[in-house]
Amino acid sequence: MRRESRSAKRRPVVSRLISGFSLSLLLAASCAQAASITSITPLGQAHVPYLTQFQGTTIGGLSGLSWSAEQQHFVAISDDRSERQPARFYTFTVQLFNGRLTDASVQWQRFTTLLDRDGKPYAENSLDPEGIALTGSDRVYVSSEGDGIRQIAPFINGYDLQGRWQQSLPMPTTFWPASVFDRLNQGIRNNDAFESLTVTPDRTTLYSSTETALKQDGEESTQTHGSPARILQYALADGRLLHQYRYDIDPVIPPTGTSASGGSIGLADMLALDNQGTLLALERTYVKGAGNRIRLYEVSLAGATDINTLKSIRGNQQIVPTSKRLVADLADDLNVPLDNFEGLALGPRLADGQYLLLLISDDNFSDKQRTLIAGFAVTILP
Prior knowledge:
Keywords: Signal
Number of strands: 22
Strand content: 35-45%
InterPro entries: Phytase-like_dom
CATH architecture: 5 Propeller
Helix content: under 10%
Domain Phytase-like: 57-365
Low-confidence stretches: 4-31
Oligomer: single chain
Order of helices and strands: HEEEEEEEEEEEEEEEEEEEEEE
Number of helices: 1
Strand order of the largest sheet: 1-22-21-20
Distance between the termini: 34 Å
Mean pLDDT: 92
Number of domains: 1
Signal peptide: 1-34
CATH topology: Tachylectin-2, Chain A
Organism: Proteobacteria bacterium 228
């Protein structure tokens, strides 16, 4: 979404990484008790230079992440709307050097072009890819925000690993953008739809969310109030939309030490931590002249009201939203250098029993922003 020298190479500490397959086994086995993040420690960052060229494409606009335990690599979706090159995602690997993530840690492997129903690369401005989620060895899901101005509906599509279209998940008309000539004030806000995408460890459930409130549900966040987004829950076995839940986004809080007015905040990505509805949410704030604030929240769907049948939730006081707990403010709590972080993925288990968590920033193909890949060691219980 658009919001406004390399380290010396050292011997990689390969022993620090254990088979990523243990991630699925451990989290899927923890079915009797919800997962919880009990610690998070920064491991450093890799910087991808502006307009890096790779196999005839420009690396940039990286907005979503996912981890393949089978193949031991990450994938990142570019939000290029087929304007520079056809819509695509990238595959890369990560090695830690002496337990740290550096510029040399990231190795790009290949890119994959997304193909539409007709087997052709997507036409320019026909989609806005933002989220990505792998389900194993045969399927990758991609979410598109659509375009509220051009009246292009958002979507969540499934593709094979060669990028060929396989299915489209159902999208209620509740989310469709109203025509600019229509008096109905409904649907997604432009550039504020499906940024997030994640699949549960047992690979049976997919979650996505709007970045902020639908027009009929409420207002966007300001410095005085938050915004009610919607979390969507799909069954991957048959593609049904099972549930929707209200998620309350924070008010806009400028970065510490600044007092700028205005700004925006959105639910930029989510990560399923277990099979019981525990998610890690990334809320990203941007205030012009002040910069970003990035917060990670642990979210629980337990006890939240299912709003799947409600076309509007504006003013409905009977709805119980999802609960959330602050895990970390990346700057205030962890002193992490910030940029436009939009994606996150839980990678392999580390030798000390923790997991590698990656965050990625979207440079919007702008020389005023950076593509950063930030690493963290996280402890997840049980």
